[in-house]
Amino acid sequence: MKKVRNTYDHYYRYEEITSILKGYEAEFPEMVRLTALNQTPEGRNIWAIEFTDRTTGDYLDKPAYYIEANIHAGEVAGCMSAMYFLDYMFTNYKTDPEVQSLLKKYTFYMVPRVSPDGSECYLTTPDTIRSVNRLYPYSELMPGLQPKDMDGDGVIRKMRVKSPYGAWKVSDKDPRLMVKRAPDDMDGEFYNVFTEGEILDFDGYTVKSAPQKWGNDFNRNFPAMWKHESEQRGAGNYPLSNIETKTVADFIIGHKNICSIIDFHTMTGAYLYPPGIKPRSEADKADMRRYVEIGKMATQETTYPPVNAHDEYVPADARVDVGAFDDFNHFTLGIPAYTIECWDLDPRAGIPFTYPIMKDETDEEAAEHHLKYIQWIERENDGEGYLPWTKFNHPQLGEVEIGGIDYKHVVQNPPPKFLPQEVEKHTRFLLRHVKSLPMIQFHKVDVQHIDGCVYKIDAYVMNTGYLPTYITREALKLQVEQPIKVSLSGEGIAFVQGKQEQDIGQLEGYSAIVAQNVSVNGLSTEYDLPCEKRVSWIITAKEGTTLTITCHSDKVGTYKKEICV
After folding, report:
1. pLDDT at 176 over 90
2. Is pLDDT at 504 greater than 70 in this prediction?
3. 53, 97, 166, 425: which could form a disulfide with 302 (CB 3.0–4.6 Å)?
4. Confidence of residue 523 (pLDDT cuts 50, 70, 90)
5. What residues does each domain of the chain span?
6. pLDDT-derived band of residue 514, with 50, 70 and 90 as boundaries?
7. How many of the other CB atoms lie within 10 Å of CB of 555?
8. What is the pLDDT of residues 410-422, one digit of tens each?
9. SS3 298
10. Any idea what DSSP says for residue 505?
């Protein structure tokens, strides 16, 4: 790919992101609008950056592509992938014809860090955070083991404690690995293994994990079959109860030209697509086919497969997660949304994909996979990210050993030296994906002089994009998409036949055309719905009058063509 100007050897904190965004606004004031959508409880702005070539239309006058990251605060490689895309677009705008063409045709919206408070805490403390560092669902810390960096190395790892009734032992295969104790294990040293931390209200012998102190999961807080905390962990007090989730939902609802959505996450190495709330077989087949076809481009650019969130990601007997951002967009707003799970440690470590991806591991599989992680760290990351078991005098438990993998910077996010290759490949996909949006054009305009000052105007409006102008079949079911309207205007004209503004409904994209190889007769193309429609008027006008034909819908924007009679 072409050059970028910023460095990707570390994870950006809030102030660095803010500085970069303001730099783009200052450098490209004619193209960029930077807005603080809201302010978090800790006083940080939730930034949205909008950009397009405004010489060819304003932000709402074109189909738009929306990108966000860090709805899960700790998945900071997702934010870096979003920031890399911005960097690529602005660095190459003045010299790259492809970038120039994209900005002439489309509008881009981005919220690079949905949870700035949570991510800032994640990047400046040893804590792991799902979405935000606010107490939930309890208003105070609960009794039990609270994760804490006890040895002061900046990482919360594991600690093992010798015990005659311990459930773990050192593996015969590798002394760094702990394995489950067999039912007949009687001889040797045994351990109990806990998260590194301290016990609140310790009674002297009971060590039990405390409920999570920061239990909000923003990706369960959207109005898509939302359920209460008692049924869906992390759900929040009610749909969009968090300022961060309400802010992004309001933004998307308020920008009706958004045609596709990208939500950056981390861990797995896959492009997830809805539904997550029900089987894929219960969703519209055409919508599902488009997800897969676009997902093939993702695989070509990143090696990551398209994965259905319900059928291929979670086990069939697992509880269905509800309230997710991508389900909200698809099934409430009718907008297709991919959840990009950056960073593929498992395949890198030699652990192949099996479906469903999040299936429970056997004890033997878990031990084997953990060992492969350790071996990968040793082989590929110069041993950084793993601490051998090291003795430590715990203030409550006495002598323990602390060690294990740095989950935050090896498993959840790539080690910094792997960050550039991770963020770059997703930009390659985004540059292709945006081209799938609907694109309205006037195929041709015929002017027929009937008699005197009477003229017939035939305008042919076509969609040359992959996606239809209604975007998804789900949107048609929801009845959320407004029809395309075509109007004719000009000084002194009068309409003899045909309304000044005409409703032409929707136009298919070429994704609706069934193109296939047929074994006997070769190639075949079939389609039922039109990608092009004609609009006609008979008018009276003076010779030489300039007419303006305007095509508009909230989703695909506004297009104009001038003719002279």
Report:
1. yes
2. yes
3. 425
4. low
5. 14-124+217-343+416-435, 144-210+348-412, 438-564
6. low
7. 28
8. 999 999 999 999 9
9. helix
10. E
User: What is the rounded CA–CA span in Å between residue 426 and residue 265?
Assistant: 12
Taking the C-alpha atoms of residue 310 and residue 329, their distance in angstroms, rounded to an integer, is 16
Q: How far is CA 479 from the centre of its chain?
A: 25
Percent of the chain, pLDDT > 90?
A: 93
Superfamily of domain 438-564 in CATH is Immunoglobulins (2.60.40.10)
- d(C-alpha 546, C-alpha 544), whole Å: 6
Classify residue 274 as exposed, middle or buried by CB count within 10 Å of its CB (0-12, 13-18, 19+).
buried
Element (H, E) at 78: helix 76-92
Q: Which residue's structure tokens are 């296939």?
A: 516
Tell me, rounded to whole angstroms, the distance of Cα 562 from its chain centroid: 39
Please provide the CATH number assigned to the domain covering 14-124+217-343+416-435. Answer: 3.40.630.10
CA–CA gap between residue 412 and residue 434 (Å, rounded): 27
Share of the chain above pLDDT 70, in %: 97
Give the three-state DSSP class for 54: helix
pLDDT in tens, 343-371: 999 999 999 988 888 888 999 999 999 99
> Using a CB cutoff of 8 Å and minimum separation of 24, what contacts does 283-290 make?
283/474, 284/472, 284/473, 284/474, 284/477, 286/473, 286/511, 286/512, 287/330, 287/336, 287/472, 287/473, 287/474, 289/511, 290/336, 290/466, 290/467, 290/472, 290/511
**Does position 133 have pLDDT exceeding 90, yes or no?**
yes
> Using CA atoms, how far apart are residues 184 and 168, in angstroms rounded to an integer?
13
Average pLDDT over residues 534-545: 96
Quote the tokens at residue 462.
């076509």
Tokens of 153: 């190395």
